[in-house]
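Propose amino acids for all 421 sites.
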């Protein structure tokens, strides 16, 4: 999933307010917009022109039928691994959850359908979020002081309301016809109409130009199935055993209940404290979202088959720590025994009274108890600190992080706190 796009000229991206190459990115000292400031009045009110056999639509995700059309498009056409063995299969409930957070704009859910039969052929979605994307946390005080004293230097940027883009998908039969740039221009127009001028997005592919690159890691929970579907290989060193699979299973075995005594499913009552714990934790990173209580309630109150969140409580029943993961299955393409790979992805967390390693071990125990086959993550946040101890292994996927219309120097993935679904 990390091959560079084989178009060195970047006919589309060369026209957009993004860093055009690595050196622009690594030499960037200024944090702030790339484009000259525009106003909502400057933005066309009519949609971008499109072939006459197609039309724009905004799938209403509250409607079962329209949500299902988005689900089917993605199920059959969305991201696959390099060898086309697995394809992400976001469930309808997941898509609804991910795309309708508090304050979402229905107009940012952009579809293209075929006029003659209404078939949804392409999609891209934006949601609003508040992002800290100013100067690096360790340079913040220095920068504020400099601005006070000299009125100069890097601009200090307060967290701002921006757009997160995801789920760009063009039907397989319409590929390589420059539909993606049209979708991106149309969603940009609709976002700009709400007076929002920056976006963040991630992709497996390398395009101009990421501000950070993370690596995927995987922790086997059901090694037998993972080997059977060729998600994993039987490690060489196990072949010497009489029963390699039994040994492999033993290696990845997890207890049935968490180590920490008071692990409980998060409830509405915990929202206030979790909001505080999470925002305080996310302060550590240079690039991270900030959540208000309504967003925390939306993103973390458990939804079966979608998102799972747990709190740890002290003797006096106070919430002290928190972890969450979400469910993103993949279709196993062309396997007669298994049709789905059930993956849990590490989401947001905050460790305070136990080590992050212990907290993540409890996460693995819960994910295993829920029947997931594997637990995945990207080495953002403080994830690299527990990978080896908890038996995560590197995969071959990379996740590139991008800003639209935001000058930002290259940062290591452990400076990034934003988890993309
Ligand atoms: S990442 C997930 C992307 N989806 C998939 O990988 C699903 C399977 N693949 C497909 O559906 C198609 O292959 C897609 C491309 C739709 C990806 N991000 O139409 P084309 C550029 C950005 O002929 P197709 C996610 O959802 C490519 O470099 N650009 O190609 C985040 C070339 O431009 P250039 C991409 O293969 C999306 C042009 O498209 C991507 O038929 C963030 C070719 O177009 C990609 N993943 O369709 C979008 N892949 O010539 C940006 C290819 O210049 C948001 N391209 O190299 C920007 C912010 C907008 C809001 C701003 C608000 C202020």
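Proposal:
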């Amino acid at each position: 999933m990390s091959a560079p796009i084989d178009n060195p000229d970047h006919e589309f991206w060369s026209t957009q307010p993004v860093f055009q190459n690595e050196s622009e990115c690594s030499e960037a000292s200024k944090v702030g917009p790339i484009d000259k400031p525009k106003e909502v009045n400057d933005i066309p009110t009519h949609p971008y022109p499109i072939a006459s056999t197609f039309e724009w639509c905004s799938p209403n995700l509250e409607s079962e039928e329209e949500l299902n059309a988005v689900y089917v498009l993605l199920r059959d056409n969305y991201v696959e691994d390099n060898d086309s063995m697995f394809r992400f299969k976001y469930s309808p409930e997941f898509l609804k959850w991910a795309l309708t957070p508090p304050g979402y704009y229905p107009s940012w859910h952009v579809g293209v359908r075929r006029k003659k039969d209404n078939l949804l052929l392409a999609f891209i979605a934006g949601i609003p979020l508040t992002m800290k994307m100013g100067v690096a946390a360790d340079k913040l005080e220095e920068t504020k002081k400099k601005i006070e004293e000299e009125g100069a230097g890097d601009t200090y940027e307060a967290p701002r309301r921006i757009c997160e883009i995801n789920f760009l998908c063009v039907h397989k039969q319409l590929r390589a016809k420059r539909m993606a740039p049209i979708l991106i221009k149309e969603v940009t127009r609709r976002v700009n109409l709400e007076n929002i001028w920056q976006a963040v997005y991630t992709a497996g592919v390398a395009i101009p130009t990421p501000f950070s690159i993370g690596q995927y890691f995987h922790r086997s929970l059901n090694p037998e199935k993972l080997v059977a579907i060729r998600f994993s290989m039987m490690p060489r060193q196990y072949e010497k055993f009489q029963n390699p699979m039994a040994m492999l299973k033993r290696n990845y075995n997890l207890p049935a209940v968490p180590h920490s005594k008071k692990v409980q499913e998060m409830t509405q009552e915990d929202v206030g404290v979790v909001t505080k714990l999470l925002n305080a934790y996310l302060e550590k990173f240079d690039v991270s979202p900030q959540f208000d209580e309504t967003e925390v309630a939306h993103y973390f109150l458990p939804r079966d088959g979608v998102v799972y969140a747990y709190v740890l409580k002290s003797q006096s029943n106070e919430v002290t720590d928190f972890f969450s993961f979400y469910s993103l299955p993949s279709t196993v393409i062309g396997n007669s025994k298994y049709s789905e790979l059930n993956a849990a992805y590490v989401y947001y967390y905050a460790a305070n009274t136990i080590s992050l390693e212990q907290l993540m071990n409890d996460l693995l125990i819960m994910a295993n108890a829920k029947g997931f086959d594997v637990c995945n993550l990207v080495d953002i946040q403080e994830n690299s600190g527990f990978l080896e101890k908890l038996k995560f292994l590197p995969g071959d996927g990379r996740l590139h992080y991008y800003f639209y219309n935001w000058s930002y120097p290259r940062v290591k993935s452990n400076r990034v706190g934003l988890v993309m679904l």
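Residues 64-77 form the longest helix (14 residues). The first strand starts at residue 54 and ends at 57.
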